[in-house]
Amino acid sequence: MRIVIVGGAGTIGRRLVPALRSRGHDVVVAGRASGEVRVDLASPAAIEAMYREVGAVDGVVSIGAHGALDEFATLTSAALAENMRAKFFGQAELVLTGQRHCADGASFTLTSGIFADQAWPGVTGGGVISGALHSFVLSAALELPRGMRVNVVSPTLVGDSAETFGERFPGMRPVPMDELVGHYLSCVEGESTGGVIRAYG
Length: 201
Ligand SMILES: NC(=O)c1ccc[n+]([C@@H]2O[C@H](COP(=O)([O-])OP(=O)(O)OC[C@H]3O[C@@H](n4cnc5c(N)ncnc54)[C@H](OP(=O)(O)O)[C@@H]3O)[C@@H](O)[C@H]2O)c1
Hints:
Elements (H helix, E strand, L loop, with lengths): L1 E5 L6 H10 L3 E6 L5 E2 L5 H11 L4 E4 L14 H22 L8 E5 L12 H20 L5 E7 L6 H4 L11 H13 L5 E5 L2
Parallel strand pairs: 1-2, 1-4, 2-3, 4-5, 5-6, 6-7
Helix pairs in contact: 1-6, 2-3, 3-4
């Protein structure tokens, strides 16, 4: 399959891209400043341009764009909306625009995160983004045309980030990278749709 991976040069991508290539897939990595194709999830025009450049792909995986940390006492709805721009609206846009460009039966695999289900200080935006993505995927799975599928992987802290972010989230057990990569592979190569895959270790 020909698969475009937005954010494929990042922490999760560095594991997922070789795994997909070793299974014979033709992978195109996209990012703002990394990979073979330029795209910024915060820009609907850039997403449209990416699809025109890569053609009718069989799969789209999104593992770019984080939610930012926030401070609830000073949080505003405008800041919340800005926080949602790339990770929520950008991933929604990948599907909404992608349904007109991708091949019949193509799959979309999005990425959310554990804060949809588990409250933590400083991640109101992260929780709202991920909860919204879970709801979006349920509706999109019903409505996508031409046999297209959509799923979302919701990781906890991932194994390769444990050293960097572990202190920020004490007591959070990381999900092993092999297990996480296995979830993405199942979404791309399987037949499921409308799935919220909770990779909580
Ligand atoms: N790491 C974790 O522990 C963890 C846990 C739960 C959820 N997640 C979620 O998993 C996803 C991937 O995480 P990660 O740790 O692999 O991220 P990462 O290491 O920071 O890599 C992110 C990748 O996405 C690209 N990117 C960033 N912003 C983008 C944008 N606006 N448009 C297009 N590409 C963009 C970056 O390349 P450029 O700079 O070239 O654009 C980079 O290749 C994120 O949504 C993150 O919130 C991660």
